[in-house]
Design goal:
The protein is 36% helix and 29% strand. By secondary structure, it is α+β, with helices and mostly antiparallel strands. A four-stranded antiparallel beta sheet has the order 1-2-3-4, covered by helices on one side. α2 (14-27) packs across α3 (89-107). The longest helix is centred in the C-terminal third of the chain and has 19 residues, at 89-107. The structure holds zinc ion (ZN).
Length: 112
């Protein structure tokens, strides 16, 4: 199993999922998107700068466990982060981007 859209839908409130989907699909407000492997846990760590509609930047980070299909941790500099039920819309946005990229990589293997 791997992280899917369903994992993200379950992790966020409906409103935050919709906002995150807009950020990713419609407005494309994700910058500096990077994926690293956490050297301690050997699990993927996604980082990005996510912009609000007014241009406010948020540093966003999500750690995931692909085998367990779980979101291990999330961190965001937005004011909603500590109040949101589940993960905030910025974390949703970078997770959706991660999932879509992984799908592209899987369907189009690199030419040698
Ligand atoms: Zn946030």
């Amino acid at each position: 199993m791997a992280i899917t859209r369903m994992t993200v839908i379950k992790a966020a409130s409906d409103a935050d999922y919709r906002k995150g989907q807009d950020i990713f699909l419609i407005d494309k407000r994700i910058r500096n998107f990077e994926t690293d492997i956490n050297t301690l846990t050997h699990t993927p760590m996604i980082t990005a700068t996510v912009l609000d509609a007014d241009g406010t930047e948020h540093e966003t980070q999500v750690s995931i466990d692909e085998e367990e299909s779980q979101i291990i941790g999330s961190l965001c500099s937005c004011p909603d982060f500590y109040q949101a039920q589940g993960i905030c819309c910025h974390c949703v946005a970078i997770l959706l981007k991660y999932i879509s990229r992984r799908h592209i990589q899987a369907s189009f293997p690199a030419k040698i």
